[in-house]
Write a structure and sequence with these properties.
It is a single chain. By secondary structure, the protein is an alpha/beta fold. The protein is built from eleven helices and 16 strands. A hairpin with a 7-residue loop joins strand 7 and strand 8. The radius of gyration is 22 Å and the shape is globular. Bound molecules: zinc ion (ZN). The site of zinc ion has 4 residues, from loops.
Length: about 425
């Protein structure tokens, strides 16, 4: 049994929790901080895909096990995208009669074979945006990506992946890419702050049935923290508003050919001041997909899924993620992580899973989303204590680079191999 609060938190993680739009707009239901989609922006995708390809992508990547069937009606020559509750007019997507008859797919990104090879510079002509997850710094405790053992160096995911991103930027630039860091510091890119989101947080709590929420909570172990306006407004800030602003920059000014999202994984660590270490240490990558029927009931999510599908992001994301996974597996020696909770679905690579995360859904170009290393495993904790360094150090009898350089080098190698191999 999953409690309603737990279900709410899970949906919050994907950014697909329901928010009621203001009554005056009387529009379709959309996710928190999402706008009602403009379906006319799918008009350029008329006759760009065959019925067979459309169904294949729905059934294998985006909404397997019939999850799409309440939202989309597939007919002989077209698909009808339902508008919930009878509002608006259903959007009708016409299929191409055959692959040869398909209209070219409009998109701002270039697939790997689009450029002639430059010797030694397989990434020349491509723009790659790096998205170090989370924030770190003064926000690390708030975003619950911080723990410390005694007086040891604190472990902060936002800092670890920012350092990795800086090394990766150097590697990719040397390979010819134009590299853009979506986040360059430990400060957010959104102008929203928890204080600006308290009204929305209060409304969300009311919708969840919490009528008299406490204003604040008493530390990370407070059992009632999730029912406080403070915790909800913080979550809206770092998990939703920040990612939506990153997406606005990706899809607007940056328009890259690829986004690489950098994360480190963790197992439950409990009290961040007295964290539990774990024997588990593993690696996986996530490709956008596996939308559930409840998520597709939200107009913005349905619209964003169709954008990912119609622009054929998975045609790059699946093989490129498998290549980067293989490179990371070789460099780190980590085994594949396996989901057993229904939150993700397996693909052809044991390291690559499909899952509907907010960032990988909103970025309208191919995304490689990396989750190597369990931060609260003993070996990773020990390597964080060693900090960043040049060359190698002996760790458990093996010569190892710093964790950040090992991570960056492996991702760069996987990306370079994929782009070079596609020539
Ligand atoms: Zn993360």
């Amino acid at each position: 049994m999953i409690s309603s609060k737990m279900r709410y938190l899970l949906s919050f993680f994907t950014g697909a929790a329901l928010a009621l739009t203001p009554a005056l707009r009387a529009a379709e239901p959309v996710s928190i901080l999402a706008e009602t989609p403009d379906w006319s922006d799918l008009a350029p995708y008329q006759k760009t895909i065959t019925r067979e390809d459309f169904l294949h992508l729905l059934d294998t990547v985006y909404a397997p096990y019939g999850a799409w069937k309440e939202a989309i009606e597939v007919n002989k020559d077209s698909a009808r995208i339902h508008q919930p509750g009878g509002w608006g007019t259903d959007f009708r997507l016409q299929f191409a009669a055959s692959p040869d008859a398909a209209v070219p797919t409009p998109r701002f990104w270039k697939a790997a074979p689009a450029r002639p090879a430059t010797p030694g510079k397989p990434l020349a002509g491509y723009t790659i945006a790096l998205d170090p997850g989370h924030l770190g710094g003064r926000w690390a405790r708030m975003e619950e990506r911080w723990f410390q053992i005694g007086n040891a160096r604190p472990v902060m995911e936002g800092e670890m992946v920012l350092l990795t991103a800086r090394h990766l930027a150097d590697r990719l630039t040397a390979l010819g890419a134009n590299v853009v860091l979506i986040r360059k510091t430990t400060e957010p890119v959104t102008s929203e702050r928890p204080a600006t989101l308290r009204g929305l947080a209060r409304a969300e709590l009311a919708r969840e049935g919490v009528s008299n929420p406490s204003e604040s909570y008493n530390g990370p172990s407070d059992p009632h923290k999730t029912e406080s306006v403070q915790w909800q407004s913080e979550l809206l800030f770092y998990r939703i508003a920040e990612i939506r602003e990153r997406a606005r920059r990706v899809n607007g000014p940056i328009r890259p050919d690829l986004v690489i999202c950098l994360h480190c994984n963790a197992e439950e660590w409990g009290d961040p001041a007295h964290p539990q270490l774990t024997d588990k240490n593993h690696l996986h990558l996530l490709v956008n997909g596996d939308y559930h029927a409840g998520e597709l009931a939200l107009a913005d999510v349905r619209h964003e899924m169709l954008f990912k599908l119609l622009t054929r992001c998975a045609s790059v994301e699946l093989p490129l993620s498998a290549q980067v996974a293989s490179s990371l597996a070789q460099a780190t020696g980590l085994p594949p992580y396996e989901y057993h909770n229904g939150k993700a679905l397996p693909t052809g690579s044991p390291y690559v899973w499909t899952r509907n995360l907010l960032a990988s859904r909103l970025y309208r170009c191919p995304v490689v989303y990396c989750e190597p290393y369990v931060m609260n495993s003993q070996p990773v904790f020990d390597r964080v204590q060693l900090g960043d360094y040049e060359g190698v150090k002996q760790i458990d009898g093996a010569a190892r680079k710093s964790l950040y350089r090992e991570y960056a080098d492996a991702v760069a190698q996987g990306v370079a191999t994929y782009f070079a191999g596609k020539k």
